Amino acid sequence: MESLLLKQRYNDLGFIVGNRLMILVEAQSTWSPNIVVRFLLYIADTYNRYIEKNDLDLYTTKKVQLPVPELYVVYTGKESHPDTIRLSSDIFGLDHCALEVEAKVIKKSAEGDILDQYIEFTHIFDEQIKVHGRIRKAVEETLRICRDKMVLYPYFEEEEVANIMFTFVDKEKQLARLMNEEREEGREEGREEGREEGIDQNRIESIKSLMKTLKLTAQQAMEALSIPMSEQSRYLSKL
Fold this sequence. Notes:
alpha/beta, five-stranded mixed sheet, globular
């Protein structure tokens, strides 16, 4: 799915089955109640595109036919969380409100189905990252353990899956290297200029460099450079 805010694709999935619009959002290991706000934005954008694609008229007396939404969060963390998340209670702190979004939370269980195996895979990968770091060794060990445990078998028998994972860690390694280079350049220019203007200009150039080199959005580049959220709007206005 394409993000409305960051203009990039996420590991989220949206598809229509019959008259059902199903959207799954991966929360990864970090829980955030803001996921339900992402759902709200996804749904509004998806319905808008659906209406335009099917040439539906919202200004007639005839009721439009829209696919019924089903919303799911695939939570791969180990902490305990409710089975559902709601806009009214989790964002507004109310029992109900005029606008409601509700999603089911899919967590680790003993069923062993495809989603359960996927969550198990993320746990294995996280553990190998802790042991080896974000390098190819972590991917190799993850694949080996998953094969031994028959987790997501036979998907990990496909060479393409392994290549995707290797590409993932290689890109993160490249990002880390560029981040260090940009930060060092920033410190050096800051020392030479000795002025806040010099530091700001260097950060702007660093943001642009990451955006161009790694095809990141402005917000992603600023997060990679550890620019505080409170300062990001100031830099956005200068890009």
